[in-house]
# Entry
Amino acid sequence: MKRGSGRLGSAVREMVRSIDANRITGLAAELTFFAVFSLFPGLLIVAGALGSLDSIFGTEIAIASKSGVVEFLQKILTEKAQNVTDAVRELFETQSGGLLTLAALLALYTLSTCFATLIEALDLIYGVQERRSWLRIRLLALVLAVASIVMLAMLLTVIVVGPLVGSIGHGGQLARLAGLSEFFASIWNGMRPPFAFALLVGWVTTIYHVAPNRRTPWLRELPGGALAAVLMLASSYGFRIYLEMAASANKILGVLGGGLILMMWLYALSLSILVGAVFNTVYWKRESGISS
# Structure
């Protein structure tokens, strides 16, 4: 037992040293800067993707899905970020037309810039030298941005549409409208949380797999992906609890409002992704040392 706890403590200390040596907190701040600029343009495309639910589940579920996104942000950011959630609500209500618009192209550009920054950060964490051309990096960042939008739309569908399909009563009606049986609805209600978590783990793991300038088996990146997903969820709900306890007594939050809260939340998410990558480097370095 003592030997196991000693190894765990040693691993934690090594992670802390790696976080400090690689300036992870600073990299997370840089990533957050671009994430703030990418959030609303990205939601523009997500709104268009959710709009496609009209042809799949009907207008009722599509409207409920967009409302669910706003409610989810309200749960995480609390009432102090009401201006943020109001902006998202207005974005969803006024968004129209196809995805191939000037605004959508701008959204893809800002999102690809955010992922290009993430690629640079992961190269540093994994200790690899970037030899790919600028164009190749930007194309990879663009692919990751589009794939992330698809993943986010799927995740929101699972989180938001899931309760509508899987719940009893009104959900039963929606399940029948979608051509689903009530038996499927009950099974789906139980499978929804682990499936959503698996999507999140798979998304982060895939980023670790393809973003740095190196090639390793996908499963090798899974430990860090799982840790990052847990940290993202824990930091999101922990952040909400903190805001509920401290925001009423914090005049700074009252003055700066939702903008500061949004940046703090995105910083927590960015830090979680980078810490997961650090965990991969420490974990496999120690595994290699043990096996040798």
Remarks:
- The first helix runs from residue 2 to 21.
- The mean pLDDT is 74.
- The radius of gyration is 20 Å.
